[in-house]
């Protein structure tokens, strides 16, 4: 398994990131931000997908401070609960700082080219936070949780951000979705896409949560978005 070691910005240690390289010179780089299930097979598949599209890709192990190297299966109820428990212990501010460190590492992999971030679930929330707090050139969040509580940071979004919203998301209520639209529809850098009837996790690479048509549509939009803004 290919990996890269990244030093934390606060000097507290280092962490591993799964790495997938394209054939030939990279057109840019992508940082894939995990769900609450760690760098599992689904996240590694996302990395391989982006590498196949020509991007140098890394997925940092953001849970390294509490349980490094964890891999969980969301289709197993006990492992789903364990992921939610880890989410409760996770320091999101430090997580965004670790994403910033990963962005810097990704720029080196892409010869200082442009870097995009894409995240899922918890990672979708962190992608929004990264858009507001880091110099990522473009960011994409899938079924991001709790964005209504982060709208006060929207002034920090200087580069393009795309959010995919599951219309029937068990973790993101209709009221939260409405607040996202009310707060972000007029932001010149933000694009929101709604997927009516779809549930949380619809674009996972494997498992029961995947909804094929919606996943293909969302991923095609993400690919076009990165092609326009990353290369």
Can you walk me through this structure?
With 231 residues, the chain is of the alpha/beta class. It has one domain (3-229): 3-Layer(aba) Sandwich (Rossmann fold), CATH 3.40.50. It contains six helices and eight strands; from the N terminus they run E-E-E-H-E-H-H-E-H-E-E-H-E-H. It has helices spanning 41-52, 77-89, 92-109, 122-133, 174-184, 212-229, and strands spanning 3-7, 14-20, 29-33, 56-60, 115-120, 138-142, 161-166, 190-195. Strands 1-2-4-3-5-6-7-8 form an eight-stranded mixed β-sheet, sandwiched between helices. Helix 3 (92-109) crosses helix 4. The two termini are 26 Å apart. The mean pLDDT is 96.
Summarize the structure.
With 231 residues, this protein is α/β, with parallel strands linked by helices.
Give the helix/strand layout:
Blueprint: E1 3-7, E2 14-20, E3 29-33, H1 41-52, E4 56-60, H2 77-89, H3 92-109, E5 115-120, H4 122-133, E6 138-142, E7 161-166, H5 174-184, E8 190-195, H6 212-229
Parallel strand pairs: 3-4, 3-5, 5-6, 6-7, 7-8
Antiparallel strand pairs: 1-2, 2-4
Helix pairs in contact: 3-4
Ranges where pLDDT stays below 50 over 5 or more residues in a row are none
Largest sheet: 8 strands, mixed
Which fold does the CATH topology refer to?
Rossmann fold
Taken from the alpha-carbon principal axes, the silhouette is globular
N-to-C order of helices and strands: EEEHEHHEHEEHEH
Considering DSSP H and I runs of 4 or more, what fraction of the residues is helical?
A: 25-40%
Instruction: Quickly count the domains.
Output: 1
Number of strands: 8
Order of adjacent strands in the largest pleated sheet: 1-2-4-3-5-6-7-8
Please tally the helical runs, counting DSSP H or I stretches of 4 or more residues. 6
* Corresponding CATH superfamily: Alpha/Beta hydrolase fold, catalytic domain
Mean pLDDT: 96
Cα(first) to Cα(last) distance is 26 Å
Quote the beta fraction: 15-25%
Radius of gyration: 16 Å
CATH class: Alpha Beta
CATH architecture: 3-Layer(aba) Sandwich
SS-based class: alpha/beta
